[in-house]
Amino acid sequence: MRLLVESDPQRIRIALLEGERLAELHLEDQRASRVGEVYLGRVQRMAPAIDAAFVDIGLGRNAFLHADDFGLGDSSQEIRIHQPIIVQVSRDELPGKGARVRRGATLPGRYLVLLAAGGGVAVSTRIHDDDERQRLIAAIERVADRDLGWIIRTAALGVEESELEREAATLHERWLDIKGAAATTKAPCCLHRDLDGIERWLRDRACEELAEIWVDSEALENAVTATLAQIAPALVERVRVHRAAPSLFERFGVERQLRYLWDRRVGLPAGGSLVIESTEALVAVDVNSGRDLGAGSLEETALATNREAALEVARQIRLRDLAGIIVVDFIDMSDGSGWDEVLQILEDELERDRAATMVEGPVAFGLVAITRKRGRNDLVHRLSVECSECLGSGRLPSPAEIASRARRALLAREAAQPGRSWRLRLHSSVAAQLENSASPILAELGERLGERLSVEGVPDVGRATFELLERR
Fold it and tell me: In the chain, where are the structural domains located?
């Protein structure tokens, strides 16, 4: 596997490649997320009608604390107006809405997660060996505070007990520091901040399978190597810096593969295809056989197509970050052993997915249901806005995405033809939105090129594209 980390003034993009194929893409805004931050807040208002409370944590709006996150039915966990309370942000603020928080704190490490509001020891369901599970549980129970909960992560598989004990002690000390700060400070205030996006990704995902780790700046190199030196020193020597044109993602073919994210139809190797449709209720995936695969019967053709589809469905779920209920309409088969094979392929591939998934079916007509834990909107929705021209029936790249694409194209042209002057032509509405949002992309390009760059908003450029012309 190969990890690529590319940044611009707007965001960091983290791509995971398996061979030459893009397997996952993660986006992290340069504006730091508050998810994972721990605050000492003060309860401002109770809302029994919606089983919730509103907590002042020092941000623009009061945070939302639902009963599921503070045990409204448990008298020992009840809260009162004006009570100081330790909470952790689980969802950032949205337009018109405050952040969502939960009581207590969840403190993740590389091998363990400390649950301040829990008790007992649990082991990742991906550790299947019973002897190993018991070994890990015994190691933590020897050192764990019984008032705290612990989750043993998949990365702990085979790790020495002394290493687990050291991390448990570190996390426990971190929680004691949080409680100590809460006892000596006045609400509202921030008690703890989680790692930045790339550092968090490395803590959770870095492994020996990463043959290379590429970054596109010295700042990222410093951040990545410093994090790896703490959690996986053997990987430090695998860090590489990409400095030349074209961009890092262009060099490894990621940009080309990302363009296919916008397609509803995904081709299969032998001529079949998937058609992916996202709705409010669920994601529907239709499997089409396409041309004859050369099989001897319709049943063999269906099985061959469904095998390929199972592999690609699992890949698209990870790549597009699809979540919730996903219904796959495989080609119907009458042979039960064929279904067993297809479902085994699907489940084996989904094992590579870090998000929790469950596969059920098939039911009538070859329908298989997959449920996947939802953390945020799927990738295409995060990169796009609803199209007003088609009344929301399609998707278009967001102004920020168009600006990022224009930046990459302009820097590539500038590297090939330094010192030239350029005209960047955008659709009028795109240019207006970028100006109103004080786009960091345009600000950076202005600082780099000065008067050699002019940005024009015009009606004759497509809403989803841009034009880059040399100015004479």
Answer: 2-32+198-256, 38-103, 106-192, 263-372, 384-471
